[in-house]
Each structure stands twice: as structure tokens, then as C-alpha cells.
Design brief:
Elements (H helix, E strand, L loop, with lengths): L30 E4 L3 E5 L3 E9 L6 E9 L12 E6 L5 E8 L10 E11 L2 E2 L4 E7 L12 H18 L3 H4 L3 E3 L7 E3 L12 E9 L12 E11 L4 E17 L4 E19 L2 E15 L4 E15 L2 E15 L4 E12 L4 E14 L6 E7 L4 E6 L4 E7 L8 E6 H4 L3
């Protein structure tokens, strides 16, 4: 089971561009882009996607458009469409791409597909060149059913695992963190923080270190304010933009030189920090408490907690609240034992669920969990997630929460699509 960003945030957020009129008399060809990067539509309805020519109207302009699957599937949830839009010389304003959405009877959480502009001729393509369509299923709201249990399980497991990735930002400013993109691979990364800037490949990032006791060593009571300004890191192909902070720091022993026993605790603060890669832009807001310690540099104990942490993308949001994760890592055996509890709220679920591990998840090496049990409930229904082995996962659904299992589904970790 690989760590990933919260699955429901997949596409780039971009600001809506310019006015749609005002082309008359201009010698400029203008800019062509979508009027919005996100559209919501109910099943059985038609979504009208606006394409806008603005900032000029000189010359003939054309652009291709095409749909592409996200979690929605062409031919099942919507018809695949492609074509070319043309603007005559002197004409600006809006054109519309209309896409009918299939109305099916199955209970699904919201699904998405994209529409992309390409091959523009005669003008400039604006930043809003891709739009996400969110198909809202009126019957998809909770309670949990056999039709949506797998997708709800995916969303909750993804939210649990992805929070550990957030601490990788520590590597950027030089404090120890559990790093690595796979749950089965962990290390303690130590860097030196003596500069007031971070080395971006492009853009910039400034660090303000409040050395509370003026000892020039990171220690209890110190705080950091980091402001990223379109800071691009080529090694991870990610651009960070916005502020984050590290506060409530408590240092015991020497975690920076890994002289055991050691400990490090701090609070991340995110104020709409964005991270953009080839998959899109993720915006994080809220706080996350980290506590990391080791008695012998072999076993590392990690805990994460938040009263509220929200991630947003393409108009879709998800929030973890009253959340606690505890993880013990054996760096020699590459074994991890994980437990978690909290509340997960998402516009995709059209509601919220609580979750709690009834049996710790066990991960050996770079593999899927081989043990573990998680109960997910909305208060009127539930799904009990039981790891059968490192290949299969069992979902037991109690539709009316009467204590009787109404449906049992066995899926593979691959089918859970945590990638």
C-alpha cells in the first residue's frame, strides 16, 4: 500500500481568467481558456462547459477539446467527446461544450472526468486549459452500501496514509523526519539548517528561524516560518507556494545527530499552502502535530494528530478531524505497525464517517499490509475492513447497523487503487 496524496485531489486549480467581452477594436488575438476549472453536475443532467476568448479578437482562432476519464468512465458515466471550436475574426466571448451525463441506479460517490484544450491556433492558450467535471450522484450520499463501500474504504485509507507524507516537508528546512515514498521503506533524514533561504531550482523560499535561546542550535521553544514563492524542486518535480510554520517545538536528546535516546515534537501550521506537480495542485490548510522519538535508532515511534486538516483540489475538499495516528517502525526489519482513528469529511462522500483500527495494520518490507482491521461508520451503517493477507482485503457491510452483516466483498489491494 503506497503512500499517496489524498486521492480525491487530482487536478490543477487555476484562477479564472479575464473578461469575456471587450475585444472590439483590439489588434490582439486574445487568450482562450475555460471559464472555470471545475464544474458540478448531477447524474441525468447536462454540464455546460464555457470556453472564453478574452483580451482581444483579432484574427481567426481555433482550438481542439477532448474528454478524458478520471474516476468516471466514458461510455458508462458520460459520452467521450472531442472536437474543434472556431472563433471568427473580430469575435470574442463564450462558446459552450455541452456533455450529457448518464443517470444510473447504482449508489456511487462522486466521480470525475476532465476536458482539456489543446492545439490552439491563432491565439494564446490561457492557464485554464483543463477543467474537471464532478458528477454528483444524488443517491450516493451516505449511508454505506455495497455500492459505495469500496470507494469509501479507499478514501479513508488514503487519507490515513497520506498524512505521513506531509512531514516530508521537514526535509526541506533541515529537521529529522521519517521519509520515503513507500510505507515499507523508512529512514531518518537529517539536514543542516543554517541558511535563511531554501535552495529552490526556480522561485524562492525564505526561512525565519526564531532561535528562542539564541544558542544557534534547534532546541525546545524555537519556531520557524517558511514562505514558499513558486519554489520548484526538480528532484521531486513539485512547486510549493504559500506559508507554513513550525511551532510548539520540543527537543530531547540529540535527534539531529541521531544520538539515542532522542525525541522531536512540533506542530505544523498550514495556511493554504499549495503543492503542484504533474498531477495537479493540492492546497493544505490547518494544523498537524508530530511526535517522533527513538530509544535506540532501530525502533522509531511516530504519532500524528490534528483537530482539523483540510486538503482541496478542483473544488473538492476533504477534512480529517479529531485524528490520531500512531506508527512504530523497526528500521532494521522494515516493519511498521500502524493504528488510527478520527473523522473523515468529504464532498465526494457527501457526508462524514468515523474510523478506528480494531486491529493494528502491519506492513513488512515494501509490501501491502498483511494484517489489520478498520471499522468505518456513518452512525447508521458501517463497513468492517479486514486485511486477509498482503493481497486480499475483506469488506463486511452492515447497511442498517443492526449487528448483522448484509454483504461481504473481497477485493485486492490493487483494486483498492491506492496508488
Amino acid at each position: 500500500m503506497r503512500r499517496i496524496s489524498i486521492t480525491i485531489f487530482l487536478l490543477v486549480l487555476a484562477a479564472c481568467g479575464g473578461s469575456s467581452g471587450g475585444g472590439g477594436g483590439s489588434n490582439l488575438p486574445g487568450t482562450l481558456q475555460f471559464g472555470s476549472t471545475s464544474y458540478d453536475v448531477s447524474e441525468g443532467a447536462v454540464v455546460n462547459i464555457t470556453v472564453t476568448r478574452s483580451g482581444g479578437s483579432s484574427g481567426v482562432l481555433s482550438v481542439d477539446y477532448a474528454t478524458a476519464d478520471g474516476t468516471a468512465v466514458a461510455g458508462t458515466d458520460y459520452p467521450a467527446m472531442s472536437g474543434t471550436l472556431t472563433y471568427a475574426d473580430g469575435v470574442s466571448g463564450n462558446q459552450t461544450i455541452s456533455i450529457p451525463i448518464t443517470d444510473d441506479s447504482s449508489a456511487e460517490i462522486a466521480e470525475t472526468f476532465t476536458v482539456t484544450l489543446s492545439n490552439v491556433s491563432g491565439a494564446t492558450l490561457g492557464v485554464n486549459s483543463s477543467a474537471t467535471v464532478n458528477i454528483i450522484n444524488d443517491s450516493a450520499a451516505l449511508p454505506i452500501t455495497d455500492g459505495n463501500a469500496q470507494e469509501i474504504t479507499e478514501a479513508v485509507l488514503d487519507a490515513i496514509t497520506s498524512t505521513v507524507d506531509v512531514i516530508d516537508i521537514l526535509d526541506l528546512i533541515g529537521v529529522p523526519a521519517i521519509a520515503g515514498s513507500n510505507l515499507g521503506v523508512a529512514k531518518v533524514a537529517v539536514m543542516d539548517i543554517t541558511m535563511d533561504t531554501i535552495a529552490c531550482d526556480t522561485g524562492e523560499a525564505t526561512v525565519t528561524w526564531n532561535d528562542a535561546d539564541n544558542n544557534l542550535v534547534i532546541s525546545t521553544g524555537d519556531t520557524f516560518d517558511v514562505v514558499f514563492a513558486m519554489c520548484f524542486f526538480g528532484d521531486i518535480e513539485t512547486t510549493f507556494d504559500g506559508p507554513t510554520s513550525l511551532t510548539n517545538m520540543v527537543v530531547t536528546g540529540d535527534p539531529f545527530n541521531q544520538i539515542a535516546p532522542w525525541g522531536l515534537a512540533l506542530t505544523f501550521g498550514f495556511d493554504n499552502l499549495s503543492a503542484t506537480d504533474s498531477a495537479g495542485t493540492l492546497i493544505i490548510d490547518g494544523g498537524l502535530d508530530l511526535d517522533l522519538s527513538s530509544e535506540n535508532n532501530v525502533v522509531v515511534d511516530l504519532s500524528l494528530a490534528t483537530a482539523s486538516l483540510t486538503a482541496q483540489q478542483s473544488g473538492i475538499s476533504a477534512t480529517l478531524s479529531d485524528y490520531v495516528l500512531a506508527e512504530t517502525l523497526d528500521l532494521n526489519a522494515l516493519t511498521q505497525v500502524i493504528s488510527a482513528s478520527g473523522t473523515f469529511t468529504s464532498t465526494l462522500l457527501e457526508g462524514n464517517v468515523t474510523f478506528e483500527t480494531l486491529q493494528d495494520f502491519v506492513v513488512i518490507g515494501d509490501d501491502n499490509p498483511s494484517e489489520g482491521q478498520l471499522l468505518i461508520s456513518d452512525g447508521s451503517s458501517s463497513v468492517l475492513v479486514t486485511v486477509l493477507d498482503n493481497i486480499n482485503v475483506q469488506l463486511e457491510i452492515d447497511i442498517d447497523l443492526d449487528g448483522t452483516i448484509d454483504r461481504t466483498i473481497v477485493v485486492t489491494w490493487t483494486e483498492l487503487d491506492l496508488d
